[in-house]
Amino acid sequence: MIIGHVGVAFAAKSRWPRIPLNALLVATFAPDILRELLGALSLSPWEATLYSHALPWSALLAAFAGALAWVALRDRTAFIVVFGIVLSHVLLDLISGNKPLWYGGPRGIHLGMVEPVELIIETLIMLAGWYRLRRNAAPSWLKHWAVPALLVVVQMASVVGSISQRPYATRCLVSPMGTCSGSSLLTKSWETKPFW
């Protein structure tokens, strides 16, 4: 999930305009940022995901990020909002991913395997947040329709990249929502061998 997280930051900014949008965006992606940092420290992908996205570690990350917001903005509300936004990342990832909520705990529903459905859900979350922000005191550049359009293009590029990296899979633009038949651009099967 990418643009769904951005939608949460947009919605939070519309409700709490004193908190800078860049701080909310960092908060919404904090578990992913931590996962990349842990991966750079030679942790396995599974360990990095566990320590960045699973409880209690994600709650500790949320408390740390909230404390930074409290110190920087001298606002107790900022602590609560940032804390909640970091944890919202974990909850949204339970929709799109297969990460455990805690070690040995329940796993996400892995909707990311059905890219068109995930794209629709993420787009709806992002548009809801953007619409709320647009109706409130957002900067004029953020109110322009090109912002959500660009975010959807970024998400679609991520989906295409994800599909292209799955070796030996039958792929087409409408799969799994439709059948790959090879008769049109949308239903034409892609190369089924890995491209690398």
Radius of gyration computed on alpha carbons: 18 Å
Q: How many H/I helical runs?
A: 9
Query: What is the averaged pLDDT score?
Result: 83
Biggest sheet descriptor: none
Oligomer: single chain
Taken as a percent bin, the fraction of beta residues is under 5%
Shape: flat
Gap between N and C termini: 25 Å
Order of helices and strands: HHHHHHHHH
- The low-pLDDT segments are 190-196
Number of strands: 0
Could you please describe the fold and organization of this structure?
With 196 residues, the protein is mainly alpha-helical. It folds into two domains: 3-164, no CATH class; 169-196, no CATH class. The protein has nine helices and no strands. Helix 1 (3-15) packs parallel to helix 7 (115-135), helix 3 runs antiparallel to helix 4 and helix 7 runs antiparallel to helix 9 (146-164). The longest helix has 21 residues, at 76-96. It is flat and about 55 Å long. It starts with a helix and ends in a 32-residue tail after the last helix.
